[in-house]
Design goal:
Blueprint lengths: L1 H25 L6 E4 L3 E4 L6 E8 L2 E8 L7 H12 L1 H18 L2 H12 L2 H6 L8 H11 L1 E7 L8 E6 L8 E6 L5 E7 L1
Parallel strand pairs: 4-5
Antiparallel strand pairs: 1-2, 3-4, 5-6, 6-7, 7-8
């Protein structure tokens, strides 16, 4: 009896699959399947607006999201994205280096850390690993060391802002992020504090 039910279900599934195939053939819709590292296969002739994955890069878990604006995207327009996704850890390393350099000799990362330090109370500072018995400069260095990558937004159709890295000192205690932006060539376009 159970074999008969299985056989009927198999036949029904085959018929439905054939109907769907026939309809897509009649409508003339062609697919352009491209495999994106971390996200799997995406039909560029009909991509979803948003794909999201939680991945491990080095020792940290990072939320990755892949974003499309158009309903049809050319293969050529995603080539740089595909290449950088294969080497995402290298791009993360570059972002980390740029942030460390800016903290030492720049101003934006210092401003971000100074702002967060000024709004966190002692309990909050302690919760992210800051020793509040130390002087202010040491506390800010500890706060900088607590800075981590929480998200990478990927925008294949935007050559100037293709990868956006969001860093924070605490996902629970602040809405402020330090955003690091790369173009399609993997060049730093800018850094900004966002809320």
């Amino acid at each position: 009896m159970s074999y008969l039910i299985f056989a009927v279900l198999l036949i029904v599934a085959s018929i439905l699959s054939f109907i769907a195939f026939s309809q897509s053939k009649k409508s003339g819709k062609k697919t352009n399947i491209v495999k994106f590292q971390y996200f799997g296969e995406v039909d560029l002739n009909n991509p979803d607006e948003y794909y999201e994955q939680l991945v491990k890069i080095g020792d940290i878990e990072v939320s990755l999201d892949l974003n499309f604006e158009e309903t049809k995207v050319s293969t050529k327009s995603v080539e740089a994205t595909l290449s950088w996704l294969e080497n995402l850890d290298k791009l993360v390393e570059i972002a980390n280096q740029k942030i460390a350099i800016d903290f030492k000799v720049g101003h934006l990362v210092k401003e971000y850390i100074n702002h967060q330090h000024s709004v966190f109370d002692k309990v909050e500072l302690t919760s992210i690993g800051v020793d509040v018995t130390q002087d202010s400069i040491s506390q800010k260095e500890m706060m900088f060391n607590a800075l981590y990558l929480k998200r990478i937004g990927i925008y294949p159709e935007d050559n100037e802002r293709q990868f956006i890295f969001d860093y924070t000192v605490s996902n629970q205690l602040t809405d402020y992020i330090l955003m690091v932006v790369f173009n399609c060539k993997g060049e730093l376009v800018g850094m900004v504090e966002e809320s």
